[in-house]
Amino acid sequence: MANQTESSNSLKLFLAWSFVGIPLLLGVYNTLLNAMKLFQ
Amino acid sequence: MSLFSFLDREHTIAKPGYSRWLVPPAALCVHLCIGQAYALSVFNLPMTKLLGITQSAPGDWKLTELGWIFSLAMLFLGGSAAVFGRWVEEGGPRRAMFTAALCWAGGFLISAFGIYTHTLWLIYIGYGVIGGCGLGIGYISPVSTLIKWFPDRPGMATGMAIMGFGGGAFIASPLSVWLMGKFNTATHVGVMETFVIMGLIYFCFMMVGAAIVRVPAPGWKPEGYTPPATSSKLISKNDVYVYDAVKTPQFWLIWWVLCLNVTAGIGVLGQASAMSQEMFPGHITPIAAAGFVGLMSLFNMGGRFFWASTSDFIGRKNTYFVFMVLGFVLYCTVPTAGATGNVALFVGCFLIIISMYGGGFSTVPAYLKDMFGVRYVGAIHGLLLTAWSAAGIFGPVIVNYLREYNVTHGVPKAQAYNTTMYIMAGLLVVGFICNLLVKAVADRYHMKANDPRLAGAKA
After folding, report:
1. B250 to each of B71, B214, B235, B429, how far by Cα in Å?
2. Residue A13 domain boundaries
3. B242-446 domain in CATH 1.20.1250.20?
């Protein structure tokens, strides 16, 4: 039972962090690409 | 269970086994959306060509008219955070996030109708007033919840959320450009459709945050966590009522600390591109300057997490001392970097300065929690955000007018910003003194156990 709760929590955490993390990382990557123009 | 009871604080109390690490993504769902406000300028140019399509036609809106949309949104951000802070605190995070989602998405939809009918005042009301209220309520909605879930790391927890506000523009900017490109035709600028789609996306995204957010059960504390027995004098174990907090000198000292720190940062943030090109003519091209601005945004976002997390180890007051002292040294160094043509030194100075600008925002909720307790920290934070609105006026005014004054009095463009840098350094000296004067809140302001106002804000 405790194991079930733990794995369900891990899945929720993975989904929740992916939901906000993926768009944020894409945005950061995009900005970083533009920022590289400073060093060209 | 009806929608309204679903929003109640009672229905957001976490059941045993709920992971507190679900709360930061819930907060990020809101802050990443409202952070779009920093990317509003991508609509400026297309909105000046709604009638003329390829170029501005008579009757098209002017940039100066459009500039008021952002100003109104910022004004209502500070105002609504101050006015609705207590309501947010007492109603719980879910109700606040839901309201913020309605206002924010509603603001986009009303603005889209304003674009469709080419009625500017509808956009002022939509994005500026209603959207601005969504900004204010959304900004403070997760603050006290995060602090309650992370009593061991309150700076890091609020830093994560407020980092999202800095990062929202990274998502909104390319998304807006991409959507406008999709709906743009030879006879139509796709701004209206972009507003509709973004409003709907933001509503869904923020509702996910509202659905997963929980408040801890009364008396909950992290496993294995024991509050430090010998605590600093500057970390209060007592709560101060929201409207009593504004009667304390500590509130106004921190208000000035935030205002001065933000004034110093905001002034250069808006002028970074022009400043870098004018101080290093021939060395920094417009394309490189755009890259510099992008890099500054990344440091603004990263600084929010880094400095707030650092404050958990070195203390809030010391963190602001670092901002003031290091900021002073860096602002005084910028003219030297310009005079010697040292681009790397110039860029380095500004990246650290801007990280501390972001850090000022994200460290302040934990500073308030230390001074005034957890119970009303969100509402007190809301009142303190008026310092941001004030800084939004002081910062750009100081930079723009001083530059203009210097240039009209024959100072070469490359040196026109030197006086401004020294003035910014001077502001940080005042901020240092204000921070130095912050002492523990007097006992008479602390809420007593039998205080009837405690019934309004459950722990």
Report:
1. 28, 31, 13, 18
2. 2-39
3. yes
Residue of B nearest to A4 (CA): B17
Contact B292 A17 (CB under 8 A): no
Per CATH, the homologous superfamily of domain B3-212 is: MFS general substrate transporter like domains (1.20.1250.20)
Question: What φ, ψ does residue B23 adopt, rounded to 5°?
Answer: -75, -45
Q: What is the domain count for chain A?
A: 1
**At which residue do the structure tokens 């509402």 appear?**
B379
Cα separation, B71 vs B382, whole angstroms: 18
Amino acid sitting at position B68: W
Output the pTM of the full model: 0.90
Task: Give the integer Cα–Cα distance in Å for B327 and B337.
Answer: 15
CATH 1.20.1250.20 residue ranges of chain B are 3-212, 242-446
**ipTM, interface predicted TM-score of the complex:** 0.91
For the residues of B109-159, what is the DSSP string, one character each?
HHHHHHHHTT-HHHHIIIIIIIIHHHHHHHHHTTHHHHHHH-TT-HHHHHH
Cβ distance of A35 and B294 shorter than 8 Å: yes
B6 touches chain A (CB under 8 A): no
Span B291-304, pLDDT tens digits: 888 888 899 999 99
Q: Could you tell me the two tokens for B18?
A: 């709920």
**By the CB < 8 Å criterion, does B164 face chain A?**
yes
Q: What is the pLDDT of residue B459?
A: 46
